[in-house]
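--- STAGE predict ---
source: upstream dedup step, 1 unique chain passed
mode: sequence only
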Amino acid sequence: MVEPHQQPLRLVRTWIVAILALVGGGLLCCGALTGFVGLAMMPMQQQVMATMPSDPAVQAQLALQDELLPWQVLGLVLQTLASAGLIAGGVGLILRRRWGRTLGLLGGGLALAYLAVSAFATARTFDAMFEAMPPDPNVPPEAFRMGMVIGAVAAGGCFAGIPIVCMILLLTPAVSAEIKAWESWRRAADAF
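--- STAGE serialize ---
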């Protein structure tokens, strides 16, 4: 039992997780906004591409955009919800509320789902790009593919890596114990 006159616990781990949740949520929010702008510009891009001479690569690009549109929309919705969950969870953790942990976990789980949808759409896009591109004699195809994969993993790590680390940290017993100890101190102080 915590005495109400005692100094409240220092919530160092919880604060670190809260800051990570806010940063990760902010990154996901920026990515979602960029994605929605790109989605809004897609009809204009398709009109411009349709006026080009009948190039098989352009036609393949238009077909791929139509095929991946539902996946892009799903990814943006998941990204937006993960962002909202992480930002609200970070605020809840700063305010030392248990629902902050719950929302942080929810946001991290949605970030995992976003990462899976995004990985599928990216892999499909890369396959189509590799098929449509003419070979470059100066760059071996394997090296180009590896560069594209490394770039995609780095981008995914920026957008979904921090929220996933946040979710893992929220699952640790130390952070859970800090939140529970603070709540018991707060209840004792309120009853005092």
